[in-house]
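thought: user wants a sequence for this fold. calling inverse folding tool.
action: design(structure=
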């Protein structure tokens, strides 16, 4: 059931009616039934696997000893590997159950927190089942934290018209980002990256920049929709984006993009790896090769490589994903290892980080490095990646003919010109909104009815039908 569809709209109306009609003791049960129905509609056959994940994790972690924790990892990761990498392990290609990557992270995060005694294991399997299956966060996150979510999910939420309005407004923002911005640039990107060897450097640069726009509009648009839906139910989801394209470095970018995933990796993989005995031994060995390096920095090297390779492979068993993970592991390591030298250099040249020109330079530099990584990520195969970089660095010219050629993926003549004008206006408008919110979180919060009406008009005029599936549903 797509989040942008008439069936989902009907589902939400029925759920909201039943949810707010239910008494204090039964409201969470309506939410659990609604979540189960949502999952059942996606693929009835695969509901068994989320049940296996829920029941096994809840049962084993009621007594969170080491052997139970290991079995929890084996069961959940085993299911994930079978479905996500079935072709690569000699099994026929299997359609992955809805949200398996995300609910696996949630079950493993819960198990790790129980094992580390950070939380008390749940005594109620139905409460735990609601935490894992809560439908707004099920398909693409945000990755919920049991300690933060459980109280909200099970407590009573009286009807609040203001929250309904706030949630509805945010849903409209998300639909606007998805159908209008992501939908419009998506066709261009698919055309160019579908056969990149046939395009010049300028066209490939435009397609890559559009891909940055599409990724953000698609993924943050989804988060706006699910956060709006959850707001209507009185439940606050964790924010997953904080204007990442205004980041002044790659590490800062990853603190702003897919925040819940990066926090999960930091809490459950990176920091535990940093403090292990084997990593300390590796750091001691590296200190003999690099005697002037700080031991704290050396301890970050192997965990960083592990986390980023796993992050890449998590997206899928393709060269492009693995290469993307290795690329960002390298960038992050360079950032860690040079930050001391950079601080000293900046002090010598009296670098003013508050200078608008310097901020713009840092943002542009970050987007440049990010673009290189996303070229690797978006390419279908290694030869495409090589061809794209080759054409960008050897065949980029800016003249009338090249600009006209860069417009051809939009169509011909007036159609291409109209598409360019529409996209430039839409992206510029979104940039203005993001810039205003970077300076003031409350920007554009007034006159919501006017903004909502304008967005609905634009959605009706320029929204791309048939583009209701979100990019990260594939993961």
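)
observation: tool returned 475 residues.
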């Amino acid at each position: 059931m797509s989040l942008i569809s008439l069936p989902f709209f009907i589902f939400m109306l029925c759920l909201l009616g039943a949810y707010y009609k239910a008494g204090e003791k039964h409201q969470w049960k309506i939410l659990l039934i609604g979540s189960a129905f949502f999952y059942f509609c996606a693929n009835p056959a695969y509901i068994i696997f989320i049940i296996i994940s829920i029941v096994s994790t809840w049962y084993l972690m009621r007594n969170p000893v080491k052997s139970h924790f290991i079995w929890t990892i084996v069961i959940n990761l085993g299911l994930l590997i079978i479905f996500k990498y079935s072709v690569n392990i000699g099994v026929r290609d299997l359609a992955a159950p809805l949200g398996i990557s995300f609910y696996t992270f949630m079950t493993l995060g819960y198990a790790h927190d129980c094992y580390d005694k950070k939380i008390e294991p749940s005594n109620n399997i139905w409460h735990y089942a609601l935490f894992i299956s809560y439908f707004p966060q099920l398909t693409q996150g945000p990755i919920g934290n049991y300690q933060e979510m459980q109280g909200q999910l099970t407590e009573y939420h009286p009807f609040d018209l203001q929250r309904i309005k706030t949630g509805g407004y945010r849903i409209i923002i998300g639909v606007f980002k998805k159908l209008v911005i992501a939908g419009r640039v998506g066709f261009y990107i698919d055309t160019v990256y579908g056969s990149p060897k046939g395009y010049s450097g300028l066209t490939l640069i435009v397609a890559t920049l559009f891909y940055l726009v599409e990724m953000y509009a698609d993924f943050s648009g989804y988060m706006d929709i699910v956060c709006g839906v959850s707001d209507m139910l009185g439940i606050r989801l964790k924010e997953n984006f904080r204007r990442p394209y205004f980041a002044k470095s790659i590490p800062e970018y990853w603190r702003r993009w897919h925040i819940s995933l990066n926090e999960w990796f930091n809490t459950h993989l990176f920091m535990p790896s940093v403090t292990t005995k084997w990593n300390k031994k590796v750091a001691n060995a590296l200190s003999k090769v690099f005697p002037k390096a700080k031991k704290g920095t050396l301890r970050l090297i192997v965990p960083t490589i592990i986390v980023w390779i796993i992050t890449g492979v998590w997206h899928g068993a393709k060269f492009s994903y693995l290469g993307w993970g290795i690329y960002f592991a390298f960038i992050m390591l360079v950032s860690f290892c040079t930050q001391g030298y950079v601080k000293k250099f900046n002090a010598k040249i009296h670098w003013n980080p508050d200078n608008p020109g310097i901020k713009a330079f840092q943002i542009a530099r970050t987007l440049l490095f990010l673009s290189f990584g996303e070229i690797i990520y978006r390419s279908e195969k290694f030869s495409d990646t090589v061809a794209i970089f080759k054409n960008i660095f050897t065949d980029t010219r800016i003249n009338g003919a090249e600009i006209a050629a860069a417009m051809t993926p939009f169509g011909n003549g007036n159609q291409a010109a109209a598409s360019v004008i529409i996209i430039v206006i839409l992206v510029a408008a979104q940039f203005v909104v993001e810039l205003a919110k970077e300076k003031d979180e409350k920007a554009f919060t007034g006159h919501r009815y006017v903004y909502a009406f304008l967005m609905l008009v634009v959605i009706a005029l320029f929204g791309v039908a048939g583009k209701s599936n979100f990019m990260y549903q594939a993961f």
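thought: summarizing for user.
answer: Here is the designed sequence. Residues 164-474 form one domain.
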